[in-house]
Amino acid sequence: MSDDLAAWVEKARLPAAHSFLDGRLRGGGGARFVTRHPGNGAALAEVEATGPERLAAAVDTAAAAQPDWARTSPHARAAVLRAAADRLEAGADRLAALVALDNGKTLAEARGDVVVAAALLRTAAGWAPTLEGSTFPADGGTLRMSWREPVGVVAAVIPFNAPLMFTAQKAGPALAAGNAMVLKAPEQAPLAPPVLAGVLAEAGLPPGVLQVVQGDGEVGRLLVAHERVDMISFTGSTRVGRQVMASAAAGMKRPLLELGGKSANIVYGDADLDPALDATLAGIFRNAGQRCFSGSRLLVQDEIAGEVLDRLTERAEKIRTGDPFDPASQVGALISTAEAERVLGVVGAAAAAGARVRCGGTRPAGAHPAGAFVAPTVVEVPRDLPADLPLLREEVFGPVLAVQRFADEADAVALANDSPFGLAGGCWTRDLDRALRTARAVRTGYFWINSYGALALDAPIGGYKSSGFGRELGRPGHEAYTEVKTVIVDTEAAAAPPWFG
Fold first, then answer.
1. How far, in Å, CA of 282 to CA of 277, rounded?
2. Per residue, what are the HEC states of 364-381?
3. Which stretches of the chain drop beneath a pLDDT of 50?
4. Which of 70, 107, 333, 348 has its CB surrounded by the most CB atoms within 10 Å?
5. Cα dist. 124→130, 251, 349 in Å?
6. Enzyme catalytic residues
């Protein structure tokens, strides 16, 4: 490990153990694996997976702790979440270093994850006392009402691309509603989730209410299949999401799935190009393209396509990719060298099929030889190439922008919808009527007009088609962690004759 990285490891104060069970960090008792910094391949920690016995005990402990937590005042639950958010912000320097080591994103992006995680906990705190039921018109001596109760024990499985943020995004709403949660940390970025669980414990969360387990897909399979799990909240690939949904069906568990995307960002001929280009670059190259709602397909109207491609290429070639801790780096590493090679293979296959690589498609010059880096890549894909080209059809999850031309509005919408995914999309135009028509016609759960990538933490997010099932955030996302109970009170029951009399 280099002296520079050692200093960041010291600042990050890596957890000494990696499962968070019954209110404290513990070893998992399972097989050991090494987690590495994606920027240079250096070993960070040896992690013990959570063995089957401790995993089962984690779920049982969560189930035992949940009823008391549910009986806790919603205002008290909110106070815990707000106190944890305060602690996250106070420890932002340490946590940003931890995320950048764990994940390989730039230090600036890692700090953004800390800020968003704190905001998510505060947003969830705001919902805790406001998850309302209903009363219905009285019918004689009968009072009829409904209220919301927690689901019970939630199993959460999160991806590697923003482990601190996704821990907050899952745990915040679940805890606000009075649930307990057992969360599986991502095997490729396992360090941040147990630290956030510790922050919540320091803020007053009772032992057992949030458990963090470690390991590979087999640990996840055992977790979601556990008979005492009532709900599964999963963010990850569509392939694994199908397996999770099958497990949920077998156990009659409630699924909440946020899966892959292949989002189309449409630039019409009358668009204001300067902000459109800014947002396009950020929309695909932020976090090295490892975001489910990245604008990985750019659709450009014929009349401006040449100018847009030239300007995009020129700017993409100037983006600095490298050491996540170098302030000059604008794009950091992918999660592993294997992922980097896979991404480069997708680009190579597109080029072999006839696509034109305008820039990138290689490792960036000067990057650490053991680092998982891919240069920002722009690929022009002619319309006569097969529509099932993996670059167009599959989620690349890397810094690769596929650009296609379109003729008119109907053509743009048809291209945008020609995808198995339906997570996000956007369009750029000065014509508001056309923008709204496009937003209605494109089958996605999230859509930007004259913007791309900005998220509203109080608005729901989720996808159509193979991009998932259900919504996170906003009212639907917080209500997803509750059950609705209907209660009927007969206030005159003592005076009424028995029906069988």
1. 9
2. CCCCCCCCCCCCCEEEEC
3. 1
4. 333
5. 10, 28, 44
6. 258
